[in-house]
Design brief:
It catalyses: S-formylglutathione + H2O = formate + glutathione + H(+). By secondary structure, the chain is an alpha/beta fold. The chain contains 9 helices and 9 strands. The model has no long low-confidence stretch (mean pLDDT 98). The structure holds the ligand N[C@@H](CCC(=O)N[C@@H](CSC=O)C(=O)NCC(=O)O)C(=O)O.
């Protein structure tokens, strides 16, 4: 697993670095970013995996969320992957729509052509990327997972499906019930086909109904988010959690929208939440 460093910037005593590598899961070259806190110079540190939303690359979170200061204080690495496979031979939406194809991998394993050649973001995030991070950087096997919007969906789905791999889960404005949201219906129909049975494994609401292991979940949602009612539906997730006594805290934040201004306002609380569950 060869990785090539392509940028390196000192930040709050630690380092922000970007790498490219050939992904076996995605069958293309990929880029990711890692923030290593100062403590990583002396000993392995735990890792938060951050999954970004539609249209994003590894750069949106690292440049806009302002997470490095608190990650440096807490001694936590943060890994930000890209949001889809990339490259000239990777299928894209015929109309270049922002919510399908490039930049819109939905953190699943596509089963339908032409998507099934490269769109295996689930395998990449769950297996290939952590193995690569743990082989190349001073990190422990303690992991947490978080994300925004499409990435919040990814964090919830992957965290709930792998309760022994992640000690905590958080999300900003997640697409909480994609089987019933236009973004999710469009993506799942294209990537997985029309049989809704195949969608359940990638729907946080369906997974939460079945969850046995209680990995703590924190969700922040702005009440001025223009996507809230049609696309996100975090209340459905929260209602399922309440009905079964699952430890999920949905916080409605007055006046906040869907942007990184919102994420930057609460990222410190999310990092502190995750650090509580790192041993
Ligand atoms: N029409 C918009 C939609 C794109 C958008 O809002 N992307 C969000 C994530 S939405 C859900 O996954 C985002 O994070 N954008 C990047 C950013 O840096 O803000 C558009 O095309 O802009």
């Amino acid at each position: 697993m060869t990785i090539e460093n392509i940028s390196c910037n000192k930040s709050f005593g630690g380092w922000h670095k970007q790498y490219r590598h050939q992904s076996q899961a995605l069958n293309c070259e990929m880029r990711f970013a890692i923030y290593l806190p100062p403590e990583a110079a002396n000993k392995p540190v735990p890792v938060l995996y951050w999954l970004s939303g539609l249209t994003c690359t590894d750069e949106n979170f690292m440049q806009k969320a302002g997470a490095q200061r608190i990650a440096a204080q807490l001694g936590m690495a943060i890994v930000a992957p890209d949001t889809s496979p990339r490259g000239d031979d990777v299928a894209d939406a015929p109309d270049k729509a922002y919510d399908l194809g490039l930049g819109a991998g939905f953190y699943l394993n596509a089963t339908r052509a032409p998507w099934n050649r490269h769109y295996k973001m689930y395998d990449y995030i769950v297996h290939e990327l952590p193995a690569l991070i743990e082989a190349n950087f001073p990190v422990t096997e303690q992991r947490a997972i978080s994300g925004h919007s499409m990435g919040g969906h990814g964090a919830l789905v992957i965290g709930l499906t792998h309760p022994h791999r992640y000690s905590s889960i958080s999300a900003f404005s997640p697409i909480s019930n994609p089987s019933n949201a236009p973004w999710g219906i469009k993506a799942f129909t294209e990537y997985l086909g029309e049989n809704r049975e195949h969608w359940r494994q990638y729907d946080a609401c369906e997974l939460l109904k079945l969850a046995i292991n209680e990995v703590p979940v924190l969700v922040d949602q702005g009440d001025a988010d223009s996507f809230l009612e049609a696309q996100l539906m975090p209340q459905t997730l929260s209602d399922i959690a309440k009905a079964k006594g699952y430890p999920l805290d949905l916080r409605m934040q007055a006046g906040y929208d869907h942007s990184y201004y919102f994420i930057a306002s609460f990222i410190e609380e999310h990092l502190k939440f995750h650090s509580l569950y790192f041993k």
